Structure prediction request, 411 residues.
Amino acid sequence: MVLLFLGNGLSVVAQELTAIKATDWPWWRGPHRNGVASADQRPPLSWSATENVIWKCPVPGHGHGSPTLVGDQIFLATCHNDAQVVLCFDAETGAQKWEQVVHQGGLVPGGNQKRSQAASTVACDGERLFVNFHNRDAIYTTALDRDGKQIWQTKISDYVLHQGYGSSPAVFGPLVLVSADNKGGGAIAALERTTGNMVWRHERPEAPNYTSPIVLSVAGRRQLVFTGCDRVSSFDPLTGSPLWEIQGATTECVSSVVTDGELVYSSGGYPENHVDAIRADGSGEIVWENNVRVYVPSMLVKDGYLFAVADAGIAMCFESQTGKELWKARLGGTFTASPVLVGDQIFAVNESGHAFVFKATPDEFQLVAENQLGDEVFASPICCRNRIYMRVAMQHDQQRQEMLFCLGETQ
Prediction:
């Protein structure tokens, strides 16, 4: 383990991100990092390729990262023409504003058949964009300005490909937090947002893992909680100081942890399936666990209840403090994208583009709507400003074309 700390004001937690508004979706899993959208909005409940489409635009290449929306711009990572790039679209019209190549060439073949060379979701601090790419057998974090000009690029670690790479950066205070778990070791680290300089870094076990760093307010403090490599680890996000660690996860995790402010809820899928509730006060207590396979889609917490959509297409509700299963219902299909909570409704989309809207209630499963858009969906949708933004792939004459849709009430 290497731990660095720069004495240049980074000990001060409060660095206000003044350019980020409540109506933005600035990074993976949204403004609160938990898949919960603003409740005071009315996204559409029905849509298709022609119904309630505000705009749609083609996305070149292939990627699984979610859209990021800040101000009048949408940012999206993709891979095409042997290059890993960041795209910018106009949030109101869908017109492409710019394209910036981050890596030309250096693509690493192989991995899982569902793998993408652009699976990271862009993070934005209001001034800069941050994106992770696996390139030339290493993980790099790159910062761009909002016009697409590169500011800095930092190598995080070498990377031995197993299934793929999908970790997204997390902005916290003056830092951007990144991870690169892999069979060769890897690291979890914090970089200075303005320069890309390494502020702190921890070496990680030699094991594949795919989850993203998430900062949560839990047990009375901010914690960076990170799962996988057969453990759940908590760090002070500013200094990197270890807070606690338990053997409470499987080797390979994908989903991001969530919290109710007291317990942390994690899930994994290889070599074992599990959902765990962990007391985040350093006691190491696993309050409850089960063997449900919620491997890829992240979970949601609302009003004392934990909602999950299993990879195999089953929606579930648990009592969050006890783990008691209150209901489960088969949706159908295979799920990779994470669900989004808007008020008392959950929006979930399976890999074939079939979307389900159901109530976030412990009483019983209540389906609100079903919709079909596209032929393939791996990217998680986002919901803000009464609109849903979805990255989908369409098949036409045996040709695959990704599209970015903006969905909203059109009448």
